[in-house]
Write a structure and sequence with these properties.
Order of helices and strands: EHHEEEEHEHEHEEHEHEEH
CATH architecture of the largest domain: 3-Layer(aba) Sandwich
Number of domains: 2
Number of strands: 12
Structural class: alpha/beta
Number of helices: 8
CATH class of the largest domain: Alpha Beta
Length: 267
């Protein structure tokens, strides 16, 4: 794992607009790293650490919420009264947005434990399933329910390991938003020493691989957008919009030219 000063990590990942603001929040005791309070701005931490901000102007439980908000804005998704599944829920950024958008119930699945935000953990609309690996998920984990909507933001695993289980848990015509993280899809030689994919050709290759895999599973691929924020190490990430249909297709707009434009789009 790469290590970085906590104040630098918070600023570079967009939690705060300046190091001074980040330092003030750290010294005020408002920052948890892997659920442990850190009070010294110069403390070095793993760049992939779980960051929790106890007191903040930011309106959501985690910055991950911004990713799903963009998906709602761009893909015309409606989850009102839906049964939803959040694979890799972590702190609950995606779960929170699903609830705000009217979801009837959200199954929050994560392989870890004690990560889901307290207010979500205590929301009667949220069913928290800890120590549950999304790769092996079945409807038995979901009270025999098929889902209307599935969202996923997972790390250290390829989407190719997650999508088959998600597909089996989704209703016909159900929708899915998944985050493509190139650093977990590319080959070892395509990721630099810092764990970052910087090559546009590699980004294109990874995205097309996931599109083809999704299509082969039975998903229609309806859209692709660049995530509004970067990953912890500075990786750019992508939102893909999938629909489970009898005759899966790929939207005509998703040409190589369009995908490259998205890769190079200002963030």
């Amino acid at each position: 794992m790469n290590k970085e000063r906590l104040d630098v990590l918070l600023t570079s990942n967009g939690y705060f607009e300046s190091r001074q603001k980040a330092q003030a929040e750290i010294m005020a005791g408002n920052i948890l790293v892997n659920n442990q309070k850190i009070s010294k701005p110069g403390t070095t931490v793993d760049s992939a650490s779980l960051i929790t901000i106890l007191k903040k102007d930011f309106p959501y439980v985690s910055r991950g919420a911004l990713k799903l908000m963009k998906a709602f804005d761009q893909f015309n998704i409606n989850v009102d009264s839906n049964l939803c599944l959040d694979i890799g829920a972590s702190t609950g950024g995606f779960t929170e947005i699903l609830l705000l958008k009217g979801a009837k119930k959200v199954y929050a699945i994560d392989v870890g434990h004690n990560q889901l935000d307290w207010k979500l953990r205590n929301d009667e609309r949220v069913i928290s399933k800890e120590k549950t690996n999304g790769r092996y998920l079945t409807t038995l984990d979901l009270e025999d329910n098929l889902m209307d909507t599935i969202v996923t933001d997972v790390s250290f695993i390829s989407l190719e390991k997650i999508l088959p289980a998600a597909f089996s848990c989704l209703k016909n015509n159900g929708e899915m938003v998944a985050l493509i993280k190139p650093q977990f899809e590319a080959g070892h030689g395509e990721v630099n020493k810092k764990g970052v994919v910087t090559n546009t050709t590699t980004h294109l290759k990874v995205i097309k691989k996931i599109i083809d895999f999704s299509l082969d599973l039975g998903f229609s691929v309806k859209g692709l957008e660049k995530s509004p924020i970067k990953g912890p190490k500075g990786n750019i990430e992508f939102l893909i919009f999938l629909v489970k249909e009898d005759k899966p297709t790929v939207d005509n707009v998703l040409t190589d030219k369009y995908i490259i434009e998205k890769i190079k789009e200002e963030q």
